[in-house]
Structure formats: structure tokens, C-alpha cells
Amino acid sequence: MKKTPKGKKNKKPVDDLRAEYRFDYRKAAPNRFAAVISEDTVAVVLEPDVAAVFKSSKAVNSFLRSAISAMPEPPAPKRGLTKR
Questions:
Q1: Which of 34, 50, 62, 67 could share a disulfide with 46, CB 3.0–4.6 Å?
Q2: How many domains does the chain contain in total?
Q3: Which phi and psi angles does 69 have, rounded to 5°?
């Protein structure tokens, strides 16, 4: 039977994060996806279980458009009445 040293029980976990990181911007590369994304594009992060159902952005957009068309239209605002 192996004996373990008694002094190792109360060690604190090592924090390997630095207090500050220096980034060399001269070595930075441009975003290779920037040309593909237009200004009116909105990026959304899907949860893993949802992403498993939708295999492409086309599938997500198709489903969202069908959900939007199934939603009831909001009532039109009444004319002539103003809030004071």
C-alpha cells in the first residue's frame, strides 16, 4: 500500500490567470469574415440543443419567417386619441 504525504491536503488551487494581458496589435490579422457579413446582419448565438435541430442559417430563417407569419397582427393604433 502506498503512503501519501500528509502535507499536500491543504494546497489551494493554482490560479493561472494573469492580472493583465498585453496584446500586440501589430501581429493581429484582419477579420476574414468581415467581407461576408453585411451591415444589417445580426449575429445570434444558439444554444447547443437548438443548434442541433437547425443545420444552417437558411433553416433558421425559414422557421422564423413561418413563425412570424403565424403570429397574430398587433391591433392598429386608434386615430384621434393622443396621450397627454
A1: 50
A2: 1
A3: -70, -25
Question: What percentage of the chain's residues is helix, strand, coil (to nearest 5)?
Answer: 30, 0, 70
For residue 13, being part of any structural domain is answered with no
Residue whose C-alpha is closest to residue 60's, from 39, 43, 72: 43
Domain limits at 63? 44-72
Contact of 53 with 46, CB cutoff 8 Å: no
Could you read off the pLDDT tens digit of each residue along the chain, which spans 84 residues? Answer: 667 666 556 666 677 888 888 889 899 988 888 888 888 888 889 999 999 999 898 999 999 999 999 999 888 888 765 665
